[in-house]
């Protein structure tokens, strides 16, 4: 089932061929409730093995238009993980120090070590999206940055970092509804920003910038997933399933101890303190 | 003069064609004393402009066999810099956290920002040298790492990081003399390590690994300099001159203030506090 949502080695990406309303033939949340719980359990076990084995690192990148649900999916799908082995990183407007370095510096610094998982809420992909839409960089510069991204991800892959890239796909109408919700709800008003309405005007430019970025960076070893996100319950289910299936494909194992367990509790080792 | 010591776009490097005793036709330290002092002054001015302008960053990489004088050259040539805009970074055996990341992680983290200079005492090049000599990585892995290094340096260059790569070239006889000095001098004994003598046995393997690394990573925009280092005074002079000439080739300038300076001290602005 995941194949339909996976992009790898794409020549061209046409986001209009993906329906943001789609739910993969599943009619309602009730229908997958039991499977969802099972997936949650499997994810916890996988994280445990990952942490014990220290053979791989896992990087999950979330990209998408404003209101596509990047915060929500991290909160709902990844909240049950052991925080000792998991971190969520959010990348906003670069600080002065970040802007004085190459564009991969701030994300590389917080890359997960082997044994660890990280979720990136936005990422180095912003540096070929918002910058391009607003003409802060030329198309040539964007091209070079996409090359740098490709090489950077090759470096990570060589170091056994699993890269799961998720594009949360919504429609402009859905976005408008979400902005209205923010304005009307006291618990959501804090998330409203004038830029939500301003950036909306660039919807088409963002779509095109995303299509180029996805086409240029979707690789067999690091595909992109286009996740329909108008239906939040399907978004959560699909993201969870992608992560679980990606991790189950890895040769994760608990390491075998290097000590001789057989004699561990014999008289020599298990001596009680002298009275 | 620097051309003789510069490698760029080399197909092959044969270190035996460089004489570690050579002094570029200069007979003694006295002959260049005045020029050396002048170079020191110019370097300070260049750093000042670099710091003010924030248009470029400068990375100086020092590599070389044990006892080639990496510590010494940093101490002697770079000690006069303004420490607020300069940092020396030393890379020893990776920590557990460093080893759990890709091999470029620990150096990328401490990359100088625009306006800053950094000297690396050893660098990511160690990851294709000591590891290769001791069979910790295969030749294929070393090849892939050299590709990653090439791409990484291209990323830095695109971000206006100037990369000055210096290989301090000594002879095995000179090294032995230096090891003996360490053993005999109370102020140098602390630097002696059994590995100095052990690693010496791999001289030929190191030489070959260096030749491959230099040939593969010497580029027009980021050349290597092979600096003869048996004569310490010539090493210092040449390194200083390389750095000054590289920086003088940059369009460094003091930024012009964005405020109107003409009216700065007129009555409106320069009001004394009311009595």
Biggest β-sheet of chain A, characterized? 6 strands, mixed
Provide the domain count of chain A: 1
- Class by helix and strand content of chain A? alpha/beta
- The oligomeric state of the chains shown is homodimer
Q: Find the count of extended strands of chain A (DSSP E, 2+ residues).
A: 6
CATH homologous superfamily caption of chain A: P-loop containing nucleotide triphosphate hydrolases
The separation of the N and C termini of chain A measures 66 Å
Concise account of the structure shown:
Chain A is an alpha/beta fold. Chain A contains 10 helices and 6 strands. Chains A, B: Keywords: Coiled coil, Kinase, Transferase.
Tags for this model:
homodimer, about 280 residues, alpha/beta, Rossmann fold, six-stranded mixed β-sheet, globular
Overall description:
The structure is a homodimer of 275-residue chains. Chain A has ten helices and six strands. The first copy, chain A, is α/β, with parallel strands linked by helices and 275 residues long. Chain A has a single domain (2-248), classed as Rossmann fold (3-Layer(aba) Sandwich), CATH 3.40.50.300. A six-stranded mixed β-sheet of chain A has the order 1-6-5-2-4-3, with helices on both faces. In chain A, helix 1 (33-53) runs parallel beside helix 10 (232-248). The longest helix of chain A has 21 residues, at 33-53. Chain A is globular. At the A-B interface, helix 4 and helix 6 of A face helix 4 and helix 6 of B.
């Amino acid at each position: 089932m995941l194949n339909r949502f996976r992009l790898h080695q794409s020549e061209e990406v046409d986001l209009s061929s993906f329906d943001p309303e789609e739910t993969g033939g599943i009619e309602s949340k009730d229908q997958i409730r039991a499977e969802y719980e099972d997936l949650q359990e499997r994810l916890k076990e996988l994280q445990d093995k990952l942490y014990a084995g220290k053979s791989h690192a896992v990087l999950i990148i979330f990209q998408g238009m404003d209101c596509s649900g990047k915060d929500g999916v991290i909160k709902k799908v990844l909240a049950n993980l052991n925080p000792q082995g998991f971190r969520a990183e959010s990348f906003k407007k670069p600080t002065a120090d970040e802007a004085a370095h190459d564009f991969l510096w701030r994300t590389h610094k917080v890359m997960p070590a082997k044994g660890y998982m990280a979720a990136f809420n936005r990422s180095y992909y912003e540096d070929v999206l918002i910058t391009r839409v607003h003409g802060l960089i030329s198309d040539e510069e964007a091209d070079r940055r996409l090359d740098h991204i490709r090489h950077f991800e090759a470096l990570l892959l060589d170091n056994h970092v699993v890269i799961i890239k998720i594009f949360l796909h919504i429609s402009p109408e859905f976005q408008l509804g979400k902005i209205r919700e923010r304005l009307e709800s006291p618990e959501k008003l804090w998330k409203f920003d004038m830029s939500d309405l301003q950036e909306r005007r660039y919807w088409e430019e963002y779509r095109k910038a995303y299509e180029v970025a996805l086409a240029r960076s979707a690789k067999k070893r690091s595909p992109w997933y286009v996740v329909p996100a108008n239906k939040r319950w399907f978004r959560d289910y699909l993201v969870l399933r992608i992560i679980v299936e990606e991790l189950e494909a890895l040769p994760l194992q608990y390491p075998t101890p290097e000590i001789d367990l057989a004699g561990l509790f014999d008289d020599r080792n298990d001596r009680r303190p002298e009275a």
